[in-house]
Amino acid sequence: MENNFKDVNKQSFYVKGMTCATCAQNVKRALDNIEGVSTASVNLATETAFVISDKEIAFQEIEKAVRNAGYQALESVSERDEEKRLKQSKNRFLLAVIITIPLSVLMFFHMAGVMIPGYLLMEILFGGLVVFYTGYPTIKSAWIALIHKHTNMDTLIFMGSVTAWLTAVLKYFGLDIASFGALGAMIVALHLTGKYIEQRLKYKASKEIKALMHLQSNEATVIQNNKEVKVPVEQLKPGDVVIVRPGERIPTDGILLNSTTSVDESMLTGESLPVQKEKGNQMTGGSLNLTSSIRLEVNKEHADTFLSQMVSLINEAQGTKVPIQALADRITRYFVPIVMIAAVLGAVLWYFNFDTFYPMLESVRKVLPWILVSDSPLSFSVFVFVSSIVIACPCALGLATPMALVSGMGRATKKGVLIRNSEVVQSIGKTDVIVLDKTGTITQGIPKVVELHLDEETAQIVANIESQSNHPLAKAISEISESKKAMEIEDIEEISGKGVVAQYDGKKYFIGRPKDYSKYDKNLEKGQTVVEVVVNDEVAGFLAIEDPLREESVKEIGLLKKKGLEVIVATGDHETTAKKIAERVGADAVYAQLMPSEKVDIINNLQSKGYQVLMAGDGINDAAALRSADIGVSFSTGTDLAMDNSDIVVVKGGISGIRSTMEISHKMMKVIQQNLFWAFFYNVIAIPAALMGWLHPAISEAAMGISSITVVLNSLRIKTENKKGEENMKYTVTVKDMNCDHCVATIDKALANAGINERDINLEKKTVTFDASHIEKGLEAIQNAGYTPEA
């Protein structure tokens, strides 16, 4: 897995003034030339850029490089600015259309032979108003490109519209040439109409992504010197006490200090029901406080909060590119200058070979009546030049991939998935094997200590040691003692895949994997994880921990297997526990008691056999495996190290995020391929037709605008929900002690009381089948009824 996100400097920012793929390429080249930049990526659809550098680069340096290329770099853009820009675009297009429609009507009358007094002067005045006033941003963009020695889409629009308008001026001063002044206005009006529609659709497409960013509060109410003071959230620091009243968004991450409250975390976790929070619970910035006025103690810097990290990941994702886009970028880089040369050559050829070529159009004109009727070589040469220039604007080609990515990223974000590296959109469909860690991936990642065999003093020490660890099991262990007495723990060292070692009061403590599991068979058979405590090389006791399965795990693994994927569980847990979990969820294979390096070996071995491997995990011990896999998936509930080494971060839910990403990526690639095909097809057909004189400039401009809008609309299809393949997976357990109809009735009643409505009980086979999403609830119901279910 290519991963450029770790131990590097990253900056995301906005770039204004880009109008086509050529602009994006020019900005990228300018960023690549900054000393220290290792990777630069520019997204035309979102008007964002992303740079990775091996040293810290001041934004002023980036701003200067972008400005020298003819564009504007901004650290942030407000919603108000976006709406203002959209309104200005609307006003310009409306004014252009209001002037151009009557001018076009007069042009058609004029073409039909109806002489309209003062028509030529109207072309010059009203056509000039449209071309130079409403089209001013286009002219400005083309001029900036020219003085920076490059071309863009606006260069073509500028040349086409101004050339058309100048024919009216030249005719007015006596030159024998057909007047296309009204066409200049039509070109600009159609261009502005297409740009406005495109901007509106792009704005709509990015709403889901912006929704997460809007959860961030701008300021917080802080207690300072016993007074409430409003401060910007960026100034909050660990230890500050913040007040949040009912109905307010929680401004940052922190620990709840008083009372209880209900919190709406739906925008962050997808859970629609309010979550009850009690004193000591972790609170997440961006969630909505519902019932009580609360105080929380800030425990993270602003940049390290959950929401800030998610927004940062989104910004990174918007800057990355799909490999297939490289082809489109290479083509558009040379496209505009080649088309300009072709248009000039075409016009010259028509001018000097008019008497030879023109008669050939007679038969074509019967099918295409808009072909210019003229006996002037100069007039027809200008007609061909303007048509060729306008038809060739590479807007559709430049939008084909970025728009699909924006729409797909928005869809993925709504489903609770952040795609950090958009390269996986193209590669995830080739996945053969999925390797899953157990804790926090297949299970809920909320382990609980269900058995404790330690004396009170040792339990306190163990709790203190584990409170300083971020291992998935550490939180559960740190809560085994109610005592909050501070202890001076020394020489804490986490041994990846084994446990944690520490010194206290002259004694050496080891908390982790038992050397001899045979003593704990009873716990392991229940699927429990055993953590042994060793003091000065003597076993002092143990803890048994349970981590319930995610309700979706069985269903989602079943659906992944139906796609032909092999699912493997790779965990550091004991073999008996791991096998029990793997059997329950229906995994194809299981590897247990693994060190982090051994997880990497398994992935490398699969890759050596030609398999593409996706790895999902959320712990520190998964980081190396996530980086080694072709695609790494982590979870927002996991460690920062795991997220730093992953391509995909699942914010809501568990394994369902993997399947969602696969389905959305498949749809994105399909749409990208469609977009690129039609963009290429359109240009391959339209440019030769224009050079042969078959296309009218107005039709060329309309076709160019329609092609861009089609690409955007096609990309928006990614947002539509696809329920295909989401049928409920069934889970079957064997109940050997179910011997009679009374047993069947008892189990049936227990399952009904547990809310499991769809169930099938087979006395002859001694099996009970129900919806896999209710696995934990179903097993518990059967056990409480007095029976023993077996996977």
Task: Quickly describe the structure.
With 791 residues, this protein is an alpha+beta fold. It contains 29 helices and 30 strands. A hairpin with a 2-residue loop joins strand 18 and strand 19.
Explained architecture:
- The protein is an alpha+beta fold and 791 residues long.
Topology overview:
Elements: E1 9-16, H1 21-32, E2 37-43, E3 48-53, H2 59-68, E4 72-74, H3 79-111, H4 119-134, H5 136-147, H6 153-172, H7 181-205, H8 207-213, E5 219-224, E6 227-232, E7 241-244, E8 254-256, E9 261-264, H9 266-269, E10 275-277, E11 282-283, E12 288-289, E13 294-298, H10 306-319, H11 325-352, H12 354-357, H13 361-365, H14 377-391, H15 395-414, E14 417-419, H16 423-427, E15 433-436, H17 438-442, E16 448-453, H18 456-466, H19 474-478, E17 490-495, E18 499-504, E19 507-512, H20 521-525, E20 529-535, E21 538-546, H21 553-562, E22 566-570, H22 575-585, E23 589-591, H23 596-608, E24 613-616, H24 623-628, E25 631-635, H25 640-644, E26 648-650, H26 656-691, H27 697-716, E27 730-735, H28 741-753, E28 759-762, E29 767-771, H29 775-784, E30 789-790
Parallel strand pairs: 15-22, 15-24, 22-23, 24-25, 25-26
Antiparallel strand pairs: 1-3, 1-4, 2-3, 5-6, 5-7, 7-13, 8-11, 8-13, 9-10, 9-12, 14-26, 16-21, 17-18, 18-19, 19-20, 20-21, 27-29, 27-30, 28-29
